[in-house]
Write a structure and sequence with these properties.
This protein is α/β, with parallel strands linked by helices. It folds into two domains: 2-88, 2-Layer Sandwich (Nucleotidyltransferase, domain 5), CATH 3.30.420.40; 103-247, Nucleotidyltransferase, domain 5. It is 39% helix and 23% strand. It contains seven helices and ten strands. It has helices at 36-49, 70-81, 108-121, 154-163, 184-210, 224-228, 241-262; strands spanning 2-7, 11-18, 21-29, 59-64, 86-88, 125-130, 133-139, 145-152, 216-221, 236-237. A hairpin with a 3-residue loop joins strand 1 and strand 2 (11-18). The radius of gyration is 20 Å and the shape is globular.
């Protein structure tokens, strides 16, 4: 079995793959100053609840956009699973050509998502990831990562309304019954939810105008289903896209390493 770990700014998502089947997955809060032992005990408790032993894990692959947390995570994997984790970065040979001015600037999660979506749905692609930030990634018809768009995430926008105004409350992110709000809460929910639905559709339209291709539009992230329910352009909702990408990369990279050893 393979343990996959995606470290985001808000959440760490973990999954256990048995061959290519995702048997278990969990989402925990990202806390940047957790120690290796705190992380290890937390992961062991998740395994215990799923009746899993750490000894069943043959390998671990990780991606992260939170560099300060990586030393503790890497030590946790070494200590509690007795393996050296594969850490995906912009320098990893993923097989994905990146046409960014500086490939170092592309987050590991965006690379992993692009690898997974290209493998599963083919190119050209637009990938929309509803995380702490809402990101758009554009893959052309040759399978080249052309670039993308980064906007503030939905939760950031909603929290900013609460934090930066005197009278607006903190709201639950749910789809309101109508666009025109009849009270403050429903008006805020409409502004945030329908605003982001319009943002997604508008940016997809602009991408198509700038680089006209028959894109498949894939959405992922914790709030994908909420936003995409009314979107005109989303074709696929894949909440586990990043975990799938990590599993795909594990196989791809390990096969490449095995082939190199055969030629030595």
């Amino acid at each position: 079995m393979i343990l996959v770990i995606d470290v985001g700014n808000s959440n760490i998502v973990l999954g256990v793959y048995d061959d290519m089947i995702l048997r278990h997955h969990w989402r925990i809060t990202t806390i940047r100053d957790r120690t290796e032992d705190e992380l290890g005990l937390l992961v062991k408790s998740l395994f215990a609840e799923a009746n899993l032993e750490s000894s069943v894990i043959d390998g671990v692959v990780m991606s992260s956009v939170v560099p300060p947390l990586m030393p503790a995570l890497e030590k946790m994997v070494q200590h509690y699973f007795h393996v050296q984790p594969l850490i995906v970065t912009h320098e990893t040979d993923t097989g994905l050509p990146i046409a960014y001015d500086n490939p170092r600037d592309v987050g590991a999660d965006r690379i992993v998502n692009a690898v997974a979506a290209k493998e599963l749905y083919g190119a050209p692609l637009i990938i929309v990831d509803f995380g702490t930030a809402t990101t758009f990634c554009v893959i052309d018809d040759q399978g080249v990562y052309q670039g993308g768009i980064i906007t503030p995430g939905i939760k950031i926008a909603a929290e900013a309304l609460f934090q930066r105004t005197a009278k607006l409350p903190r709201i639950e992110l749910v789809l309101p019954s109508s666009v025109i709000g009849k009270n403050t809460v429903s008006a805020m929910q409409s502004g945030v939810i329908y605003g982001y639905i319009s943002l997604v559709d508008g940016i997809v339209d602009r991408i198509r105008d700038e680089l006209p291709l028959p894109y498949t539009v894939v959405a992922t992230g914790g709030l994908a289903e909420l936003i995409c329910s009314d979107s005109e352009h989303i074709h696929v909702i894949d909440p586990e896209l990043t975990l799938k990408g990590l599993r795909i990369l594990w196989d791809r990279i390990r096969r490449g390493e095995a082939a190199k050893h055969e030629h030595i």
